[in-house]
């Protein structure tokens, strides 16, 4: 393999830049040329490609987002568009492709591999919703961002003696809510994997108020419902002033924490080794702190394994 391409696709995640840096510098150390594909699959089909050097990835390890930019590309679902992408890769002499992104990005990598392109995927998504790996790049930084917001909201919630509902990302996976809720001492954690009973939450709020509790923090994953609606329901039932905070895309930004920088570095380096060894249609992940690669089809079919023990611990500690 003489030349590889690297792209970031889908939603950005803190740690993508350290992963890009690792891909580039590992490849160059093995005598492999690297081409950066800007704006994901959209940039690929439009030939938005440039050579990357060691200098190209200097001073990016601490930066959030992705220097390669990212975009969603619905037209990539069309076979003729993917065939164009294959031709673009050939024009630029790219022998293998590293794709950093989430489920949709992996689907694109799989479809390219079906057309003969050597592909390797790296899990870059804050939601931690790729079941084949313990952690995805960007997850821990997003949790820290939520925790920082929670700490600040607790101050004003206590001052005004109110209920604060914090809505976080996680349409199908509640890991951000679960981890941030435990770390921040939230009274309630509502995730898509588990049913919740509004009456029980309201009872807990009323009992807490009667015993002198001055605030309540509720973490709500966006996949369950809206924070504004929940706040209104709780206030109507309990009479306690309730306010919603929707953190939104602040969770995607910020300098990646240590864990995400190291994870990006380890997975990025492994991706290059995978391509060099001739393994294709693979994804790289981490289990029990061991980096591994596996078939992309198996990874996409892996079933989510919600951490019941952690959820039960949260209920004990609240």
From TrEMBL:
Homotetramer. GO terms for biological process: canonical glycolysis; fructose 1,6-bisphosphate metabolic process; fructose 6-phosphate metabolic process. This is ATP-dependent 6-phosphofructokinase. Mg(2+) binds at residue 103. Its main location: cytoplasm. Its cofactor is Mg(2+). Belongs to the phosphofructokinase type A (PFKA) family. ATP-dependent PFK group I subfamily. Prokaryotic clade 'B1' sub-subfamily. InterPro entries: ATP_PFK (IPR022953), ATP_PFK_prok-type (IPR012003), PFKA_ATP_prok (IPR012828), Phosphofructokinase_CS (IPR015912), Phosphofructokinase_dom (IPR000023), PKF_sf (IPR035966). It is an enzyme of class 2 (transferase). Residues 4-274 form the Phosphofructokinase domain. It is found in: Cytoplasm. Pathway: Carbohydrate degradation; glycolysis; D-glyceraldehyde 3-phosphate and glycerone phosphate from D-glucose: step 3/4. ATP binds at residues 11, 72-73, 102-105. Keywords: Allosteric enzyme, ATP-binding, Cytoplasm, Glycolysis, Kinase, Magnesium, Metal-binding, Nucleotide-binding, Transferase. Catalyzes the phosphorylation of D-fructose 6-phosphate to fructose 1,6-bisphosphate by ATP, the first committing step of glycolysis. GO terms for cellular component: 6-phosphofructokinase complex.
